[in-house]
Design a protein that fits this description.
mainly alpha, three-stranded antiparallel sheet, two-stranded antiparallel sheet, 21 helices, 59% helix
């Protein structure tokens, strides 16, 4: 990217990037996918009375702002449950030890959204676009980190486009913190790798506030630069790691205060007993929502070229991705609400994307045809991911099950819910059949597939 024949300065790059990102964000209507009600109500609560507890007036405000007919039944149920003193007035909300009602997710993302919410409301614009603006700001921060890392507007722009084609475009418009977690985690890798642990620590901490498992990346971040042990004990490094841990700790501290447990979500909807090898494989390779859905080109580039000359760093990044994936294996809803790739697989892929970017940083001349092929593959994957919901099979899953049914046996929950078109508990009394090719049934204490070749 050049302007008037000269490389763009950081200031010019930042201004142009801000204009492009802001125009893209304002052009789209805000999405109500994911855990919209929780984050919207928390944002309204923080903007209106400075605390994350949900009050009847906050519900009224959301009902007024939401499109006609949206959430009326669920918000009415929430209002009635709160009035009746229910411990769980609505799925996603829980009564705290102080008697107030809170969303089960932490309020870091809504706290950031509260400022643009108030500004948009004052301007007479739709305040629910606040989440788009937070996500856009997070992408902007990543763009600045990429410019610092590469020292080039052209390379930073290409790398940012690559991020957007690795799931970023899929979640940009969601009122969920996945973009915030992914951008700040990747930016933390970039800052630690370039010798800025303070900024990196803050960003890693921000990433972990909504997705606490990201705190597991801190040890890997400290080891990104080959350096003697004494360097790891330098005040700046220790301060960066401490800042990351401090920001991470805000969520469990709040949960302990209000619910008496470090994570109300883990207490009610997760269990270590759910972890399994099949789930781990599914998180990476499921054809509907696995990580491979978001990064097929990146994975191929790493296998064919990206690991060369950085085998040790490759092992570190792979181990970090594995660590980040483990907490997701405990969730009860494996067929989670997703935009193509499952949410936690999206941000867990960031160490692998960083590994490829690190390899590209060391190359004087980027391989033009290979980069175009990489971007084309990622663009195709992004386009495919927009064609289905988490309650329907992806095109690639349908094709494989039709032509090679024995080659793909998804987690039973994924198969049953996408076959049925809705989220519902698995029923051992029934069987689930995909056309005349594949049947899932319960026998001898476990779910089994029968493939019809």
């Amino acid at each position: 990217m050049r302007l008037a024949g000269a490389p763009l300065s950081l200031r010019a790059f930042a201004a142009l990037l801000a204009l492009v990102l802001l125009a893209c964000a304002l052009a789209k209507r805000p999405s109500t996918a994911g855990d919209f009600e929780e984050y919207a109500l928390m944002t309204i609560a923080i903007a209106s009375h400075g605390s994350p507890d949900i009050r009847p007036a906050d519900i009224d405000t959301l009902q007024r702002l939401a499109p006609p007919g949206y959430f009326e039944t669920r918000l009415a149920t929430l209002r009635e449950g709160m009035a009746g003193g229910a411990q769980v007035p609505l799925a996603g909300f829980h009564r705290g030890r102080d008697g107030a009602t809170y969303a089960i997710h932490f309020f870091a993302f809504p706290a950031l959204a509260a400022l643009p919410y108030a500004a948009l409301e004052a301007l007479g614009a739709n305040p629910l676009k606040c989440f788009q603006l937070v996500n856009t700001a997070a992408i902007f921060v990543l763009g600045l980190a990429l410019f610092r890392f590469f020292g080039s507007a052209a390379r930073a722009s290409t790398a940012l486009l690559l991020f957007l084609l690795c799931g970023g475009l899929l979640y940009w418009n969601w009122a969920n913190p996945e973009i915030l977690s992914a951008t700040t985690l990747l930016a933390a890798f970039l800052y630690f790798a370039s010798g800025a642990p303070l900024a990196g620590g803050v960003l890693a901490g921000v990433a972990s506030m909504q997705n606490p498992g990201i705190v597991l990346a801190l040890p890997a971040l400290a080891l990104l630069r080959p350096q003697p042990l004494a360097a790891l004990l330098q005040p700046r490094m220790l301060a960066g790691l401490a800042l990351g841990l401090l920001l991470f700790a805000l969520s469990p501290a709040f949960n302990l205060l209000k619910f008496g447990t470090p994570s109300i979500i883990a207490a009610i909807s997760a269990s270590p007993a759910l972890m399994s090898g099949s789930r781990l494989f599914s998180l990476f390779f499921d054809l509907n929502q696995g990580m491979i859905v978001a990064i097929p080109g990146v994975a191929a580039a790493l296998l064919l070229w990206g690991w060369r000359g950085q085998a040790a760093l490759g092992l570190l990044c792979a181990a970090c991705t594995l660590l980040l994936a483990l907490p997701g294996l405990t969730v009860s809803n494996w067929n989670s609400g997703a935009a193509g790739v499952m949410r936690y697989a999206f941000w867990a892929a960031m160490p692998l994307l960083f590994l490829l970017l690190h390899r590209l940083q060391a190359v004087t001349q980027w391989p033009g045809k290979a980069m175009l092929a990489l971007l084309a593959v990622q663009a195709g994957a992004t386009a495919l991911a927009t064609t289905y919901r988490h309650t329907s099979f992806s095109p690639q899953a349908r094709w494989v099950m039709t032509h090679f049914p024995a080659a793909y046996n998804p987690e039973p929950e994924i198969f049953a819910e996408r076959l049925s078109g809705n989220e519902a508990p698995l029923d051992p009394a029934r069987s689930y059949r995909w056309l005349d090719r594949k049947t899932l049934y319960y026998a001898n204490g476990h779910w089994t597939y029968k493939n019809h070749e």
